[in-house]
Amino acid sequence: MKAIALQQFGSADDLRTVDLPDPKVAPGEVLIQVKAAGVNPVDWKLASGGLDPIMESGFPLIPGWDVSGVVVRTGFDATEFKPGDEVIGYVRKDWAQNGTYAELVSAPVRTLARKPAALSWEQAAGLPLAGLTAYQSLDRVGAAAGDTVLIHAAAGGVGSLGVQLAVARGARVIGTASERNHDFLRSLGAEPVEYGEGLAGRVRALAPEGVDAALDFVGGDAVDISKDLVKDPSRIASIADGEAEAKGGHYVWVRPDAADLEALSGLADAGKLTVNVDHALPLDQAAEAWRLNQEGRTRGKIVLTV
């Protein structure tokens, strides 16, 4: 099979298209013909060696944890799916090596769910990691109907899904973004505010009594600003501030969860959740996809098509 891989830790410049043996399919796994693979910041952080202190890696290293595709073979005791099934997955295994930037990927069934019929292959590939991150962050802060939720970086890949998921729960959403993304946020059901100096005051202008919960999808001073706006700091969750727990909130590292992923799929098919794909590039343009992702100006998701 063809895949994008690195021979050692490196950057976008070190990505190469290579021919590798087809993946082995262990018990409890299925083999997926990849239609599209989502691009996430963790892909290039892993490839740079940034996760080496906490996660085993092997080489050649194929990046990617997001996938949409078709099951072509099942391993022993993988009864949840059959050949021909269309699936999505957050295919994070216990070690990093055989990722989704490839024509084929083997995936534990615990990481998969049915593909939403309402989404294209490209949209579906952008849903798993970002969608689960937003979904599990909302769960962590107990976001529910009637709450006012502040979402930092609301127009990004995770944030735009978080807005929709919070709205689907019946929450009021205030989302930070640059001015050029304000109409986009309104289309998702959020009330936009410009990020940067004076943010707390702009949020207070919309919610004079503060907000019930806050989600930080950008880092920087987002958690510190949120502490001045929430009634209870334990209702702050961050995916970017490693000191969030010391500040009274939660640090969220997304987990593969088939039930949560199935819930996201159901919301998409119910018309309550969609994925905005900002860029869809061919697999062999993975390096360019990383550069775009590193700029941090994407509205929604970047995906690779296979």
TrEMBL record:
Pfam families, per the entry: ADH_N, ADH_zinc_N_2
Matching SUPFAM superfamilies: GroES-like, NAD(P)-binding Rossmann-fold domains
Identification of the protein by name: NADP-dependent oxidoreductase
InterPro entries: ADH-like_N, Chloroplast_QOR, ER, GroES-like_sf, NAD(P)-bd_dom_sf
Organism: Streptomyces coryli
Residue ranges of domain Enoyl reductase (ER) in the record: 10-304
GO MF assignments: oxidoreductase activity
Domain of life: Bacteria
